[in-house]
Amino acid sequence: MAETNSRKISPLVKTGLELGPVVLFFIAYVLVKNRTFDIGGRSYEGFILVTAGFVPLVLLSTALLWKLTGKLSKMQLVTAVLITVFGGLSVWLNDDRFFKMKPTLIYLLFGGALGIGLLRGESWLQSVMEGAMAMKHEGWMILTRRLCVFFLALAALNEIIWRTQSTDTWVYFKTFGLTIAVFLFFMTQGKVLQTYALEEEDKTPDEAG
Q: Where are its TM segments located (predicted)?
């Protein structure tokens, strides 16, 4: 997983492996959401059955990303572990609440980690994404503060949605709402990226290529 062993792959392949399991989860849920299944003497709702299929699918896509790129980010690893743990608990205990609270914990962990770095005067986001974007330290700190607040807000929002709304509403929120929210967040950070972008003469030899 070291950076020296990393390999580039097609952006379409990378996006497909990252978002494919979520799309398949949604399609499968729509197809079986009103059905129940008797397995081993127990009755399972469609949501639980789809969750049981989603966990190995995420693990497979994560393994393929590792094989193709030679690395995995800490965020990808944490996400895969939490999906496995909380998805597994939902299936084992036949209780959808564990899987629904999983995004809350993911965003709390990410937001909390960024917050700890900020308290130390550091941008842990910079250490993760510096290879993808060349930006001054001040810019990284601004972006990190905003992303920290954004992640904590998503955690709170997920709690509100799954505790007060139907499973249908939560699935739509998880599939589309969270994905669109993350996309819009980064789309609205263009001014920060532009204002604090490093000029060619400011880049290190590695950043300049």
A: 12-32, 44-65, 77-93, 105-125, 146-164, 170-188
